[in-house]
Design brief:
alpha/beta, Rossmann fold, 2 domains, ten-stranded mixed sheet, 9 helices, elongated
Length: 276
C-alpha cells in the first residue's frame, strides 16, 4: 500500500480523508497522489477557470502535506469522475484509494449513487472510506463480516495485514438472517473458520437481523467498534452474501472508517465496466 490516491474536492469531508491518508502514509512509508477531476464545460473559458482554481487549491494541499514529510504529488484530470479516477489508478500504479464520504443524503443518493459508492463498486484496488476524523492509533476493534468459506486464503491475508497495521482486535461477525443454522452452530463454524485461517486476537459474534447491512451497522455501533472491513465480489447471484451493492450500502451509512476490497483485486487490477 505504498501508492495512495486521494480524490480531492476541497470539502471538509476531503480534509478528514487527507488527514487519515497522511497518518497511514507515515506508518507504511507511503506516497500520496492528490487528484482533482474537473468536469468539462461547454465553455472552454469556464473549464480553464476551473482548472486554475483546482491547481491553486491542490498546490496548497500538497505544500501542507510535504510539511509533514510525506512525499505528495498532484494531478488534475478533465472529464467524468469515475472513468478519470479508475484510469489514474491504473496509469499511476495506485495501490489504495482513500476517500471522504458524507454518507447518505436521501433520494438523490438512492437513485444516483454517491461518488464513494461508485468507487467501492468499481475500484480495482482496496478503498478506505473516511466519514469523520480518524486517528490510526485509536483503531482498536475491526468488525469483519465473514461468509465462513474456507477457500479464501489470499483475502484473509489482507484482513490480517489490516489487523497488524492497526494492532487491532478482529470482531468476526456473522449476520444470521434466518438460515437453517442456529446461533450455536454458526459460532462453532466461526471457531473452525478462525482456526482454519490461524487468526489471532479475535472475538466470535453472531447477530440476528433480517437485513445484512442493518445488522453490521447495529453491531458496530453497539460495540463501539472503530472500523469495518469487508471483502466483496462482483458476482450478482443471491447465494453470495456480500455483494458490492451491500458493501456500498454499508459504506454509505456507516459512521466509522470502512475498508473494502473486491476478491478480484487480489489477482489483477482490472477495472469493472461502469456506466458513469
Amino acid at each position: 500500500m505504498t501508492r495512495i490516491l486521494v480524490p480531492c474536492d476541497f470539502s471538509k469531508y476531503n480534509e478528514k480523508a487527507l488527514n487519515f491518508a497522511l497518518q497511514l502514509a507515515a506508518q507504511i512509508d507511503g506516497h500520496l497522489l492528490l487528484v482533482n477531476v474537473v468536469s468539462e464545460s461547454t465553455s472552454a473559458a469556464i473549464t480553464s477557470a476551473l482548472k486554475i482554481h483546482a491547481l491553486e487549491s491542490l498546490t496548497a494541499l500538497v505544500k501542507s502535506c510535504q510539511n509533514s514529510g510525506i512525499i505528495t504529488q498532484q494531478k488534475i484530470l478533465t472529464g467524468r469522475f469515475m472513468p478519470s479516477i479508475l484510469k489514474s489508478v491504473i496509469n499511476d500504479n495506485i495501490d489504495l484509494i482513500v476517500m471522504g464520504t458524507h454518507g447518505s443524503r436521501g433520494w438523490d443518493d438512492f437513485f444516483l449513487g454517491s461518488h464513494i459508492e461508485k468507487i467501492v463498486r468499481t475500484s480495482p484496488v482496496p478503498v478506505f472510506a473516511v466519514r469523520g476524523s480518524v486517528n490510526t492509533k485509536s483503531i482498536n476493534d475491526i468488525v469483519f463480516p465473514c461468509d465462513m468459506k474456507l477457500n479464501q486464503f489470499e483475502m484473509i491475508e489482507q484482513i490480517k495485514l489490516l489487523q497488524t497495521l492497526f494492532h487491532a482486535r478482529l470482531q468476526i461477525l456473522r449476520i444470521n438472517t434466518g438460515s437453517s443454522l442456529n446461533d450455536e452452530k454458526i459460532k462453532e463454524r466461526l471457531e473452525q473458520y478462525a482456526k482454519h485461517y490461524q487468526l489471532v486476537n479475535f472475538r466470535i459474534n453472531v447477530l440476528k437481523n433480517k437485513n445484512v447491512k442493518d445488522g453490521i451497522l447495529h453491531f458496530t455501533s453497539e460495540n463501539n467498534a472503530d472500523m469495518i472491513a469487508m471483502i466483496t465480489h462482483r458476482k450478482r447471484d443471491l447465494k453470495h452474501l456480500f455483494s458490492q451493492s451491500t458493501t456500498a450500502d454499508v459504506v454509505n451509512h456507516a459512521n466509522v472508517l470502512v475498508w473494502t476490497c473486491c476478491s478480484e483485486q487480489l489477482s489483477a487490477k482490472t477495472p469493472a465496466k461502469n456506466d458513469d
